[in-house]
User: Which sequence fits this backbone?
């Protein structure tokens, strides 16, 4: 029999906000937080699905190389910041900023970087996660040179270590951090529902943009999220189970990589997220290998050049995602490919894992 679910939404409901019950950090309402709720926009809180940043031509921003390509069409000056297994290298960022004097930040129309964009945990595609020490050093540079930090942290709840690194937002004493969170990674990717936290003057500008564009996120999407996060215990259980699932996926991927790619490639163990960034030894570019070999065998990988601002430049990297395949499938693909290729040339050996 068909069931009809009746949802009654009241603008004067007295129930506590379910997100406050799930996240202790958000129990106290702040005017700088965009709340997720139904109805028409109001001066303080407003639900949203996506945010679009308008950047003036010539504005300088800093970010890791992998995300630069996405912002290239905006016409801003993008500075590549070198990274390592932990993400952005503070020493390298400091060297870049040394082109300017800190006092120049007080001058109007200066060409200092206006903001740093970073994915601090499980960054796509590298899977890197900034340590607490790195974040502290980066934040001090932001204070010294007076630029904003956009902390895009969709994989925050997919951190596999027991102790989570503090967020940039938790360090912020100047009102220079805008934090982006999402429910897409702990409830459902199809929700496309998130929220911003940051200084009220900046958040107010986002509210004005949303009011004149999308108005608000889908009401059904909001109600679906609320149903999942109805109480604090449900939220805790949900995010813990999701994290444990992806940690199991990560471990299975690492086991397969160690079994079939040892000596042929190198990688860093991701401490968060859903990606493994692999550097193939002995070749300068992975594009041809993936397009002509991996895809024909039903293996979907992303060549490294897809994440570079110069998509024509060769790169020995490729990105694998462990979000979908089961541990058995990961190993079975490796065993099947190994039986077919009998450990042939380098490309065939690589495909044992791919």
Assistant:
């Amino acid at each position: 029999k068909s069931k009809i679910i009746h949802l009654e939404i009241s603008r004067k409901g007295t129930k506590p906000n379910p997100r406050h019950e799930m996240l202790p950090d958000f129990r106290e309402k702040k005017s700088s937080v965009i709340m997720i709720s139904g109805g028409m926009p109001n001066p303080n809180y407003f639900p949203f699905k996506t945010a679009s940043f308008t950047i003036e031509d010539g504005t300088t921003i800093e970010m890791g190389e992998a995300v630069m390509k996405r912002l290239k069409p905006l016409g801003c000056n993008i500075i590549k910041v070198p990274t390592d297994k932990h993400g952005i290298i503070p020493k390298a960022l400091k060297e870049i900023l040394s082109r300017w004097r800190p006092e120049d930040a007080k001058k109007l129309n200066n060409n200092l970087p206006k903001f740093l964009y970073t994915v601090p945990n499980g960054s796509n595609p590298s899977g890197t996660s900034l340590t607490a020490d790195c974040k502290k050093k980066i934040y001090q540079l932001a204070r010294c040179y007076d630029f904003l930090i956009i902390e895009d942290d969709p994989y925050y709840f997919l951190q596999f270590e027991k102790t989570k690194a503090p967020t940039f937002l938790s360090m912020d004493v100047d009102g220079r951090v805008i934090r982006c969170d999402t429910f897409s990674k702990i409830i459902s990717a199809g929700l496309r529902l998130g929220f911003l936290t940051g200084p009220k003057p900046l958040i107010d500008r986002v509210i004005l943009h949303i009011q004149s564009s999308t108005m608000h996120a889908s009401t059904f999407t909001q109600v679906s999220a609320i149903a999942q996060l109805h109480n604090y215990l449900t939220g805790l259980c949900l995010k813990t189970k999701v994290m444990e699932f992806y940690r199991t996926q990560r471990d299975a991927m690492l086991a397969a990589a160690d079994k079939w790619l040892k000596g042929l490639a190198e990688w860093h163990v991701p401490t968060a997220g859903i990606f493994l960034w692999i550097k193939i030894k002995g070749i300068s570019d992975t594009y041809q290998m993936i397009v002509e070999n991996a895809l024909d065998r039903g293996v979907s990988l992303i060549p490294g050049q897809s994440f570079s601002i110069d998509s024509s430049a060769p790169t020995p990297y490729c990105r694998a995602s462990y979000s979908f395949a089961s541990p058995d499938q990961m190993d079975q693909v490796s065993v099947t490919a190994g039986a077919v290729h009998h450990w042939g040339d380098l490309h065939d050996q690589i495909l044992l894992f791919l």
